[in-house]
Amino acid sequence: MKTLLSILLSASVAFTAQAPAQGTPQDQLDIAGVHIGMTEAEARAALAAFDPEIEVGAVMAMFNYSDGMNMLQSPEFLDRLEAGQLPGLGPAFKVYFSGPVGEVRVIGVARSGLMMTNPPTAAQFVDSLLSKYGRPAGLSCGDRTQPVWEAAGRPSCIRARDYKDEVPISVAAGAGESLADTGTAKQFLVRRSYLNTRGLIPDEPTQCGTYLSYYFPQDPVQSFQVEVFDLGAMVSTERSRTAWVSELQAEAVRQRQGRGVAPRL
Fold it and tell me: Can you give the C-alpha Rg of the chain in angstroms?
């Protein structure tokens, strides 16, 4: 009889370059009830339903820009929600949003978990993952401690060709959270398209799909990381924010130039 871990391992080699993109419906790839596309109110409600005692705070962001003479700051906007605190690890949950331009929606969720009391075995943990999400799309780099699910309907952008010219999943644990924190999803995908992903990254990176990744390095599982990110939506968000700041800067330059006074000659 196959063990649960061998089921995960077989999933990592089940996809070749010719394999059809099937995946999991995106609305099934949630973390604590929060999934891609939710509004802020819906995300807050989902976290409250998951843990009625959890404290949720908003993290605001702004951009610096110049009118050619003075440094200015953009209006504040919602970057993410943070909820819960883990000793030495920071927030248990981070929920990232698009905006401030257009309809503000969830584009990614990251969670860190600790289970120091009665931790489950790796097999028990995997069993709960399979029960919630179904069979994964594969294992990142064949690592049975990092199963990954991909949303159906859009191109995968987390695969790379190996020496057999097959296309297993290759995404580091915590990669999405790092890209969201630094605003470098487009840069990551463009750079990746020049490496061993020929023909895998679409020319238009906003077409890239959503993935969900778990990472649990110990057995029994005393800690884990999980994230779900819509890579295409992250690129769209970066572009819209860049355009927004460019418009603010252009208007500030026009206003400064309009106030210019020529000296007496």
Answer: 21
